[in-house]
Amino acid sequence: MLLKEYRICMPLTVEEYRVGQLYMISKHSHEQSDRGEGVEVVQNEPFEDPIHGQGQFTEKRVYLNSKLPSWARAVVPKIFYVTEKAWNYYPYTITEYTCSFLPKFSIHIETKYEDNKGCNDNIFDTELKEQEREVCFIDIAYDEIPERYYKESEDLRYFKSEKTSRGILQEGWRDTQDPIMCSYKLVTVKFEVWGLQTRVEQFVHKVVRDVLLLGHRQAFAWVDEWIDMTMDEVREFERTIQEATNQKIGMFPPSISISEMPLSSCALTSPASAPTTPMCTDAPEALSVPKDRPRKKSAPETLTLPDRASSGVPQGSVPSPLPDSNHVQSFTTLSSNPDLTEMDE
């Protein structure tokens, strides 16, 4: 298990971002979806929890089959997806990602929002229970973003909001910006497979960081599109976009309802959470394979395992099959980066 805390500041208030995050996630998911690939919204309903009160439950499927390498497509189900379940008790949320094909892999993101510049070092004291974690600040204006994600209109070093007059964000903007809020995210990645755990968990955190950077950049870059929306209006926008996205990727479930009747807390037993990050399907720039790179003429048909005596595996034991890192990378696009499967190693 690898645990990190991310802190992402934005020139918004917590109350404003309640609308902004819903708008950003819906729009981004629609942009990144295509026929047979992308984010299908399975459920989006009010939900009431005995501890956290009334919130919103969402379940999504992120379809990734075409992003897998050819060898992986031969062994995984024809329709391969990652499941996102989220409970939004804003300003407290948790989102979980799982995959039935990789039962020992999961991502757990717990989020709290506060109107400050990321200075609360004790915000997760109850949840951490003495666990050590690395704290990572993400600067939405000046941290480097993969080139494939870059859009001039979303470059916050040059963007100024017409409706709020916020921006342009100068170096050190977090020290002078008013208003300012911080999204605190406690991210736990688990991949409990001997021999690959450290490498895979570190890689997934790199993907998660890129996703958080992109999503929060877009939330502010699109502020003039959503700042005047009410919660009712953004929920209607969310419903409309979700139905359009489902049709775009070729899924035609019954119309998604965002009803006024909250679900019973016993109907869903997962932890409280929320839609926290956009879903895209591109790998980090450093992991992309040049399109003009010549393909290998052949690939081995079998995998040669090391001798038991030299590998340290006790005689008579049967180790679990280990998925190749390419396989894991392709699936982690759920947290935001396409073509992860094209990484060569």
Automatic annotation (TrEMBL):
Gene3D superfamilies: 3.30.530.20. This is Cytoplasmic phosphatidylinositol transfer protein 1. CDD domains: SRPBCC_PITPNC1_like. Residues 268-279, 326-339 have a biased composition (Polar residues). The keyword Transport applies. Keywords: Lipid transport, Lipid-binding, Transport. Residues 310-319 have a biased composition (Low complexity). InterPro entries: PI_transfer, PI_transfer_N, START-like_dom_sf. It comes from Xyrichtys novacula. The lineage of its organism: Eukaryota, Metazoa, Chordata, Craniata, Vertebrata. GO terms for molecular function: phosphatidylinositol binding; phosphatidylinositol transfer activity. SUPFAM superfamilies: Bet v1-like. Belongs to the PtdIns transfer protein family. PI transfer class IIB subfamily. Residues 1-243 form the Phosphatidylinositol transfer protein N-terminal domain. It catalyses: a 1,2-diacyl-sn-glycero-3-phosphate(in) = a 1,2-diacyl-sn-glycero-3-phosphate(out); a 1,2-diacyl-sn-glycero-3-phospho-(1D-myo-inositol)(in) = a 1,2-diacyl-sn-glycero-3-phospho-(1D-myo-inositol)(out). It comes from the Eukaryota.
